[in-house]
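W.,

You were right to be curious about this one. When I first looked at the sequence I had no strong expectations either way, so I just let the prediction run and decided to look at it fresh. Below is the sequence, 80 residues in total, followed by the output.
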Amino acid sequence: MPRRELIGLEVEVADATNKSLKGIKGVIIDETKNTLVIEQEKTSKTVLKEQVTLNIMMDGENVRMDGKMLLGRSEERVKK
């Protein structure tokens, strides 16, 4: 589990329970306990963390992560 803020990071939905979400790319602009909001060029999409596998660009590396590992509030994750 990343112990850092995710807002501002580049992300791509690598896989999803809802196949229409697969391939969404953009920047994380908001996060709640159960969702991430990804800003694309002209729109934003809200995805449920528990339903996606993400490729997240962190510190110059592309990290693949199961969204279930991100469940919870960001401030709680950063404190751990």
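Here's what jumped out at me. The mean pLDDT is 90. And, maybe more interesting for your project: The chain has one domain: 10-73.

Coffee later to discuss?

I.
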